[in-house]
Amino acid sequence: MPPLLTPPASSSPLLLASRLGALHGPAPLLHHHRRAVASVHFLAPRRKTRPGPAMSWLGKLGLSGLGGSPRASEASAALAQGPDEDRPAPGNEFAQFGAGCFWGVELAFQRVPGVTRTEVGYSQGNLHEPTYEDVCTGATNHNEVVRVQYDTAACKFDDLLDVFWARHDPTTPNRQGNDVGTQYRSGIYYYTPEQEKAARESLEKQQKLLNRTIVTEILPAKRFYRAEEYHQQYLEKGGRFGFRQSADKGCNDPIRCYG
Fold this sequence. Notes:
Layout: H1 13-24, E1 36-37, E2 40-41, H2 57-61, H3 70-80, E3 92-99, H4 102-110, E4 115-123, H5 132-136, E5 143-151, H6 157-167, E6 175-176, E7 179-180, E8 186-190, H7 193-207, E9 217-220, E10 225-226, H8 234-237
């Protein structure tokens, strides 16, 4: 994922993390990282300047004396931890997966026959309506996820699980390659008891194939916050430099996750 643009000093990730740490435990480690292809570094599209202190992360989190009240913070967390109330198209079901940088994960699922829609976003956190910058502080506990809509007559949940396991290393806590942070953790977020059962059985099978402990979390799907538009189908659209990658069904070209 691309490095963050520097936010205003009054709402910096370090300040947010340190203030949260004072209330909820040690501040998380913050990592800035970038991927490279042929030694060329790619950056995300330029973003508009963030709002001033009145709309800072601290205010949105509702921390006492820092733009809100503990009650506001609890209300935000309650909304964020609610169930995903969106509904899939008739004959379809949703599934959510976290497996590192969501650009490459989404493209992998786009190629699966029977998948009718994919969206990248944030879930499992404690902040209502988070932004990419909020998530990258590591303080909101959101994960970068792909919400997959699939036609149950043409695609099985087990097919999606196969792609999930093949796409990432499920044994590295909060890390995929050079991407480090809580938003890169491995997770399967189920919508139905059948999905939960299949996910747990699949994890048991995968564990027998590996000599390190799988750290994938299996939890109920929570409210899904759609990521900013430039993140959607990022690799298919070509990213910042126009290097388009195929999302055709059944395509098995290597996925290059640059940014």
